[in-house]
Request: fold
Amino acid sequence: MTASVVVLSGGLDSTVCLALATQNGTVTALTFDYGQRHRVELERAEAIARSYNAEHLLVTLDASAWGGSALTDPSIDVPNFGDPGDEIPVTYVPARNLIFLSIAMGVAEARRAGEVWIGVNALDYSGYPDCRPEFIASFAATAALALKRGVQGDPIAIRTPLVDKTKADIVRLGLEVGAPLHLTWSCYRGQARPCGECDACHLRAKGFAEAGVADPALR
Reply:
């Protein structure tokens, strides 16, 4: 059994990751309050961690201080799915996973955890560069050079079990392992109800539709 740190946003992918990690040992769930407009996901992350009796750490950093993303800057509109724009959408948060993984690695080393889990996905995703397997492999190599454990020959592993799965695959896997999908949140706009129009809502709806099951969070 292995102790793990799981980056938990409160969304579908990270929740399935948490469910998988709990099968391997003890888990610390790590959530980031980075000034995101969809702050409801923080409440969902807390509820999800509680459902597994997992330790839940909340790290606060203010990505809105440097801006550059519709998720942290209220002056930038969250686009609807299919709106014309750049190849990498304005919902991309500069260096988000780079920062998250750096902190997760620090927590893992301090807690003597052997693995960091993150729910990045490079198939049904929005095109963010820090969700690609190339980035994860490069980061893992750099972390091994930067951490005490790494230079002593016992690097912390990064687990990305969803990186090559479709959203439908992730939904099916979540159901198989009993993940609390009804607690998850995906919408970028953070309204009382999911908007159903943003990229995150579209990808989530696509996943449940292709899996042939109703989204339990919308009941």
Remarks:
- The two ends are 36 Å apart (CA to CA).
- The mean pLDDT is 95.
- Residues 4-218 form a domain with the Rossmann fold fold (CATH 3.40.50.620).
- Residues 28 and 55 are 5 Å apart (CA to CA).
